[in-house]
Amino acid sequence: MGLRFSILSSGSTGNATVVANDDATILIDAGLSAKRIDQLLLEREESAKNFDAILVTHEHSDHIKGLGAIARKYDLPIYANEKTWEALNKQIGTIAAEKQHVMETGSMLEIGSLQIQSYGISHDAAEPVGYCFYDGEEKLSVATDLGYMSGKVKEQIKDSDVLILESNHDIELLRMGKYPWSIKQRILGDKGHLSNNAAGEGLIEVLGSRTKRVYLAHLSRDHNMMDLARMTVGNILQDNGISTKDEGITLKDTYYDRATPWDRLSEE
């Protein structure tokens, strides 16, 4: 059946994504309460009792709010790099030693036939990462919370069947917004968040012949809108000869308050 996934929640109020194949089911981040994660999973006819592991991208609260609680509730192993573990241990309560697994940045983890590659990203956290998932020839890449799309990131996520990519803010809405200038500088900086424009420009270099869909993720509720993100990214792609109509790339929405439907990478 190949890879399938559902983005349970995406945005500054909480992030969590489920990725699965025939052999394994993985949760990426747990930035919502354990109760809320359970509710969202139930709506997708899934349960955390079926999870094989939780992968952590970084230690910010919107990615780990429910991590300790759900890991303890379902006795789940957690994977993160060493620097992230050092930051996590102050925030998520007691995790049994045998459930704490170090997955160094750039390493590959195999759970059954599911292969998971981590890669470094630029964000103001201890050692933030993104993940690529492989099942046979299928490839799903997750790239959010990155201030800019480096050459190494582009190489890692290039030619994915499906890409979950940050499209956090519209630059002008952010500049005119209510945040203090110090926070605006952080968001706009190389260790902040990817703008709609930066997402579109980066996509030009990473879309491949097999890329079908791009999910625009981690949208700001104050400085972005789904229609605006789709329009901005779509216009940049079309200006560079990449169609978002008919047989072209499909741009998909993500939500802070509900899960996306299950999506399968295969056409079956």
Automatic annotation (TrEMBL):
Enumerate the catalysed reactions. Answer: 3',5'-cyclic UMP + H2O = UMP + H(+); 3',5'-cyclic CMP + H2O = CMP + H(+)
What the entry lists under InterPro entries is as follows:
Metallo-B-lactamas, RibonucZ/Hydroxyglut_hydro, WalJ/YycJ-like
Write out the GO MF terms: hydrolase activity
Q: Which Gene3D superfamilies does the entry link to?
A: Ribonuclease Z/Hydroxyacylglutathione hydrolase-like
Record-linked SUPFAM superfamilies:
Metallo-hydrolase/oxidoreductase
Indicate the segments forming the Metallo-beta-lactamase domain, all copies. Answer: 13-218
Q: Which UniProt keywords apply?
A: Hydrolase
In terms of domain of life, where is this protein from?
Answer: Bacteria
What job does this protein perform?
Answer: Counteracts the endogenous Pycsar antiviral defense system. Phosphodiesterase that enables metal-dependent hydrolysis of host cyclic nucleotide Pycsar defense signals such as cCMP and cUMP.
Q: What is this protein called?
A: MBL fold metallo-hydrolase
